[in-house]
Amino acid sequence: MSADFVARLIGMIVFSILGVYLGTHLGRLANETPSEFVFSVEQYAFTIGMVGALIGLILTPYLTTRPIKSLRMQLSRLSTRSLLASLIGLIVGLIIAALLSFPLSLLPAPFGQVMPFIGVLIMAYLGVSVFLTRQDDLFSMVQGFSRGGAAGAEGGAPMAERTILLDTSVIIDGRIADIARTGFLPGSLLIPRFVLNELQYIADSSDTLRRQRGRRGMEVLAQLQKEPGIPVRITDLDVEGVREVDDKLVILARQLRCPILTNDYNLNRIAELQGVTILNINELANAVKSVLLPGEMLQVRIIQEGKEPSQGVAYMDDGTMVVVENGRDYMDQEINVVVTKVLQTAAGRMIFARPERENE
Question: Which of 255, 192, 254, 251 has its CA nearest to residue 221?
Answer without folding.
Answer: 192
